[in-house]
Design brief:
107 residues, mainly alpha, 1 helix
Length: 107
């Protein structure tokens, strides 16, 4: 009977040690799971931030494209106005030359 009690006590001690080891292992698993959760949350937050930044960059690029189109249209209008001005200047030169010729003929 004494041997059986000692064996039973030994088994209880070993079982307790195993339970303690299992507890420590579970605590380690919980810590790792918490760390993974924190990393996933950080990755999610960074992904959201990158998505917002990408959208902002896309909007800026669209704005730049619109500005470039407007600048191109303005440049075309200025070019047309300059061509018109060159034509007017040519006509003015012709009138001035005629005026000079007529003025010289009148002397």
């Amino acid at each position: 009977v004494m041997t059986a009690m000692e064996e039973g006590t030994q088994q209880v001690i070993e079982g307790t040690k195993r339970a303690e080891q299992a507890k420590r292992s579970l605590e380690d698993i919980v810590q790792v799971a918490n760390r993974i959760d924190a990393l996933v949350r950080a990755i999610t937050a960074d992904t959201i931030e990158q998505t917002e930044t990408s959208r902002a960059v896309a909007q800026v690029m669209q704005s730049v494209e619109l500005t470039a189109q407007e600048t191109s249209q303005e440049a075309q209008r200025v070019s047309g106005a300059l061509q018109n001005l060159v034509g007017v200047a040519g006509e003015l030169r012709t009138f001035v030359e005629r005026f000079r010729v007529e003025a010289n003929d009148g002397k």
